[in-house]
Amino acid sequence: MSTAALDLPAGAERAGRAENASLRPVLAPESVVVIGASRRKGTAGRAILDNIAAGGYVGRVYVVNRRARQIRGERCLTSVLDLPEPADLAVIAVPAAAVLDVAEQCGQRGVRALVVITSGLDVAACADLLAVCRRHGMRLVGPDCFGVAVPGIGLDATFAASRLRPGTAGLVMQSGGLGFALMDQLSRLGVGISSFASVGDKLDVSGNDLLMWWEHDGVTKVAVLYIESFGNPRKFARTARRVGAAIPVLTSYAGRADREALFEQTGVITTSGFGELIEATALLATQPVPAGRTVAIVSNVGSAGRLAADACTDRGLTVYRPHGPTRRRLRTLTRGPNPVGSGPVDTGTTVSEQNYRQCLELLAADDEVDAIIAVVLPTGATGDLVSAIVHADVRIPLAAVVLNQPESVRLLPGRQSRIPAYSYPEAAAGALARAAGYGAWRAQPRGQLPDLPDINPEQARTLVREFLRQPPAGGWLPPPAAADLLHCYGITPGDPADGTGVIVRVTADHVFGPLLVLGIGGTESARLIPLTNADADLLIQSVRPVPRRPGGGGPAAELRDLLLRVSRLADDLPEVTDVGLDLADSDGTVVTNARIKLELLRAQDPFLGKLR
Q1: Cβ(565)–Cβ(557) below 8 Å
Q2: Between 20 and 30 A from 237 (CA), which of 72, 276, 323, 393?
Q3: What per-residue confidence (pLDDT) applies to 15?
Q4: Tell me, what's the pLDDT at 610?
Q5: Beta strands in 288-391 (DSSP E)
Q6: Where are the alpha helices (DSSP H) in 41-164?
Q7: Under 8 Å CB-to-CB from 250, ≥6 apart: which residues?
């Protein structure tokens, strides 16, 4: 079977560039108009105008308020139609009943994008708002959102209460309030914000759009998603995989372990809460990605070093045990009762700044060490151990734990880069474990999408269309029709009496889109569609017992071929919402029973089809 690299087709690349260009009026506007800003402080529109002024926005600003002559020294226009130029971005903070008229006027004046702060629009009004945007070719953020911000150009079109610091973290939020809190925390840390969008009801701009923007903006080094859903599920899985290969993508998603495993397949780093999200972002925004899972621990408090070691082990990290020349040199620098015994290096409470720094540098130079956790408790009898961390020449990931610091996490200056310092060992271990997991995902071979020259997708689409034309326009295919559809992808049904307990299913997930599930002997595992050859092998290996060819050997090549064909079928035909296949023999060459369900695709706005 020949293969093709897992890259975007040329058409998809062009579409991606077009989508990014369409976001420029939102995230790189040269002119902004605030519609609904009030003379009265304490309102969303006035706060947005105040923040734009305070941020030092470098572009042109206009204000529309038909009841005021000027606000904050800015002359007010009575209508959007009075704008001296078509503004790139309009921020709308007017009563819900007025939103559609204002949006229509924006379209007529040539405004290129809208951010609709207003809440309370019903389903019909949302549909009408989207229709206005489609008719005039405007991008739409919201409605019911908290605004957008790009601190690097001084744009803060939100009603946040504090100033934002320019930086390298891209944020997209559905819950604007938590978004403001996260922006505050990352600004306080010094990580800062590259761009922020509160997408609200996500009628148009979604997390997918922001991920593609950050992939190419040249500023963002870490992407943070704090949203309940991710827009087009099929597109999210593909986009996250591609973007994650370039920059870390993090989200907070407390849920089932199987859902976390699916996130891991896309490379998205999951945390179970707000605090862990900040802690992991602080490390990934400042430190290199670990090359492996082996962590050295240095502590001037033996019990704290052991806590750090336990936390690392609990999170799947390996604690380094010094040996050979490293162990011998460490013994000359440490004073603890068991300085280089079971793993953590106990320097002794009264270690000097110089000796502590040399311990870190020794371990960093050891090829077996992938990362370091430096635990310190400053006392009157020690040197400045925080300074030792700051000045150590460490070129691998380094996380500090300063046991008496009041902040849960802060950033220290460092010789190579800023260093995250946590107040307790478990936080440092958790952040490093997530970074190491991401590094392992990034190092995995991506594999290739199969080139299947013997399939007939056009005939399959014709079969699907003919079935869906018949009432009740969807449902389970009759067995002969299911066999015909499988035949289009080179999959052959056999005698139902020959089943072996091996099943292959396709099921839909509301976050990730279609999943391919392999079950053997009651054990199931799932992978995201489309599968590469590497994905298919990993899926087979994750299920035990693995079918083997007579005489032994690895996973059957025929089973891998079947999985890739089913994946292609589900990827080509979005109308296929459920597939269940029973296999005849142990190597997966023949299907004995097939259940395939088709559903009409939900009518989707053609404008959204281009934007999402």
Answers
A1: no
A2: 276
A3: 59
A4: 39
A5: 294-299, 318-319, 345-346, 371-376
A6: 44-55, 99-109, 123-136
A7: 222, 223, 224, 225, 268, 269, 270, 271, 277, 280, 281, 284, 434
Residue 228: CA count within 13 A, CB half-sphere: 7
Which residues have C-beta within 8 Å of that of residue 220, sequence separation ≥ 6?
A: 168, 169, 170, 194, 195, 214, 247
Q: What are phi and psi of 211, to 5 degrees?
A: -60, -45
Mean of pLDDT over the chain: 90
Retrieve residue 461's tokens: 């689409």
**What is the distance between the alpha carbons of residues 12 and 16, in angstroms, rounded to a whole number?**
6
Whether 497 has a pLDDT exceeding 70, the answer reads: no
Q: Which long-range contacts (CB under 8 A, 24 or more apart) does 268-272 make?
A: 268/225, 268/240, 268/244, 269/434, 269/435, 269/437, 269/438, 271/434
158 beta partners: 147
For residue 258, which amino acid is it? Answer: D
Which 3-state string (H, E, C) describes 177-210?
HHHHHHHHHHHHHCCCEEEEEECCCCCCCCHHHH
Which tens digit of pLDDT belongs to each residue from 90-112? 999 999 999 999 999 999 999 99
**Confidence class for position 335, pLDDT limits 50, 70, 90:** confident
Both tokens of 447, joined, read: 């594999």
Question: If we measure between CA atoms, which residue out of 105, 146, 99, 91 comes closest to residue 120?
Answer: 99
- Residue 41 carries which DSSP code? T
DSSP letter at 493 equals B
pLDDT digits (tens, 9 = 90+) for 124-137: 999 999 999 999 99
Q: What are phi and psi of 231, to 5 degrees?
A: 75, -150
Number of neighbours of residue 340 by Cβ within 10 angstroms? 22
As beta bridge partners, residue 371 has 295
What's the pTM?
Answer: 0.90
| Separation CA 516–CA 536 (nearest Å) | 10
Which residues have a Cβ under 8 Å from the Cβ of 446 and sit 6 or more positions away? 6, 245, 532, 534
Provide the pLDDT for residue 382: 84
Can you tell me the distance from the alpha carbon of 309 to that of 517, in angstroms, rounded to the nearest whole number? 37
Contact at 8 Å (CB) between 388 and 409? no
Angle between helices 457-469 and 557-572 (to 10 degrees): 50
User: Given 3-state DSSP classes, what are the helix, strand and coil percentages for the chain, each rounded to the nearest 5?
Assistant: 40, 25, 40
pLDDT above 70 coverage of the chain, percent: 90
CA-nearest of 138, 355, 331, 170 to 249 is 170
Residues 6+ apart with CB under 8 A from 248: 221, 222, 223, 269, 284, 289, 435, 438
Q: How far is CA 300 from the centre of its chain?
A: 37
Is the preceding peptide bond at 471 cis, omega within 30 degrees of 0? no
**In angstroms, how far is the first alpha carbon of the chain from the final one?**
33
The predicted-structure confidence for 509-536, as pLDDT tens digits, reads as follows 888 889 999 998 889 999 999 999 999 9
pLDDT at 2 over 50: no
Q: Give which of 564, 457, 530 is closest to 234, Cα–Cα.
A: 530
